Amino acid sequence: MAYADLREFIRALEKSGELKRIPFEVDPELEITEFADRSVKNGGPALLFENPKGSKVPVLINAFASTKRMELALESAADDVAGRISEFLQMRMPEGIIGKLKMLPMLAEVGAFFPKIVNDGPCKEVIRKKDFSLDYFPVLKCWPHDGGKFITLPMVFSKNPDTGKRNCGCYRMQVFDERTTGMHWQTHKQGAEHYRRMSAAGGVKKMDVAVAIGADPATMYSAILPLPPDIDEMMIAGFLRSKPVEMVKCETVDLEVPANSEIVLEGYVELGELRREGPFGDHTGFYSLDDDYPVFHVTCVTHRKNPVYATTIVGPPPMEDFYMGKAIERIFLPLMRLQLPEVRDIAMPAEGIFHNLILVSIRKSYPGHARKVMHAIWGLGQAMFSKVIVVVDEDVDVQNFSEVAWKALNNIDPERDIQFVMGPIDSLDHASRLPNYGSKMGVDATRKWPEEGFARRWPAVMRMPEDVQKRVDALWKRAGLK
Ligand SMILES: Cc1cc2nc3c(=O)[nH]c(=O)nc-3n(C[C@H](O)[C@H](O)[C@H](O)COP(=O)(O)O)c2cc1C
Ligand SMILES: [Mn+2]
């Protein structure tokens, strides 16, 4: 059963022993971060701060910050979500009338994913068009050298001016004053693309934007998914929760937001207006430098009675975003395999902050195959950011980082097997020579073939035969060893 809203998810977390309420006063400036950081690194629960200093609105943090909580959020393990996706991808019209009849329930399920417009919703319980202030909400100052307070887990809605398609992305927002924030959509993201297109078209000066904070967990989660342009996150959220997302029209802008949202900020981004944003203690564990980004002007705030403010912190790994990213790795594997069926598995170790290190195992079929896979990944949506790709043969378990390091390091002749390419890189990369542009490295750690010019013999890995292992099992016990 899909969660109706954030509150139902909070109750589910609590019932599973995955939530701790903090009734006393804690400061949203730095103290909540210190709590959340310690909790995630100790395998602790999600935290609900009922009495954040300076606000009546409680703060929810770390709601997705473990494999178990991601599973509760999506109501199934990420691997099972991937399984459902594989099933749909393999769905073909079967022969004969009986087969077609069998298909009907599945097709009905597909139709059931599309978001539904409703007339009213809980997010309209309180509507403030005049007397509102962002100071009402307990927005965190996350890290000591941050440029200010940041809304860190928003669902930012905008429309593609050319196609009219909706986009929802999670882009942090620095609170500048009671009614303005930064809008940190990086140049590769859909919000930025909409902004560019509107600017290029001319005519209008303002771009409508609506920001929802806190909703049912699948809807919140959909905002971070690296979907192709013009694929509606709300449709994918409907798939994830097996129930359409109900959307309501905004009061002052031509956009819709999830009806069950806790908080909605409506407003606009003025085309051409930029303001210094940051620094910000970022996903990488380093501070992102300050930079110029568009400004979001809030024109109306709507919220539920007694809203809950959902947020997260990012920083030295592993953090909550690692668990959110790990589920993406699982969920997107079948989609990647649609284009690259030779891929067996991929892994993104926490220390690589998603795309700094991607380990890929492939079924190698022809000379240069590993390099083909690297280039394909560099051409695949947000996987373009992959800074280091290590390709191994299918017998290597990429989830076992120790095995990958051992085999890859032994298998490479660095000069021959490492390839550098130039291209777009993540805006958060602080080491690249230019913002958003730099080099990437591919490591072909597969076994080399004669067809690839490898004239020597390739050795086998040592393994004891099973019969010897079995004999020693018995002798081991006899020796009193454990
Ligand atoms: C906690 C969190 C914060 C994020 N903050 C930003 C951000 O400030 N700017 C940005 O461009 N992407 C940010 N992202 C990544 C985007 O949400 C992600 O790339 C998403 O796929 C973008 O959606 P889009 O393709 O619809 O633009 C963040 C992700 C997470 C998990
Ligand atoms: Mn998108």
Characterize the structure shown.
This protein has 482 residues and is an alpha+beta fold. Helices cover 30% and strands 26% of the residues. It is built from 13 helices and 23 strands. Strands 5, 6, 7, 8, 9, 10, 11, 14 and 17 form a 9-stranded antiparallel beta sheet that branches. Strands 19-20-21-23-22 form a 5-stranded mixed beta sheet, with helices on both faces. It has a 4-stranded mixed beta sheet with strand order 1-2-3-18. A hairpin with a 6-residue loop joins strand 2 and strand 3. The radius of gyration is 25 Å and the shape is globular. The two termini are 46 Å apart. Bound molecules: flavin mononucleotide (FMN) and manganese (II) ion. Manganese (II) ion binds next to strand 8.
As a percent range, the share of helical residues equals: 25-40%
Model regions low in confidence, pLDDT < 50 over at least 5 residues: none
Strand content: 25-35%
- Average pLDDT works out at 96
Summary?
This protein is of the alpha+beta class and 482 residues long.
Describe the protein's topology.
Blueprint: H1 6-15, E1 19-26, H2 31-41, E2 46-52, E3 59-61, H3 67-74, H4 78-90, H5 96-111, E4 116-117, E5 126-128, E6 149-151, E7 154-159, E8 166-169, E9 173-177, E10 180-182, H6 190-201, E11 206-213, H7 217-222, H8 233-241, E12 246-249, E13 256-258, E14 263-277, E15 280-281, E16 287-288, E17 291-303, E18 309-310, H9 320-339, E19 343-347, E20 358-362, H10 369-378, E21 388-393, H11 401-411, H12 414-417, E22 418-424, E23 437-444, H13 466-478
Parallel strand pairs: 1-2, 3-18, 4-12, 20-21, 21-23
Antiparallel strand pairs: 2-3, 5-17, 6-9, 7-8, 7-11, 9-10, 10-17, 11-14, 12-13, 14-17, 15-16, 19-20, 22-23
Helix pairs in contact: 4-9
The structure holds flavin mononucleotide (FMN) and manganese (II) ion (MN).
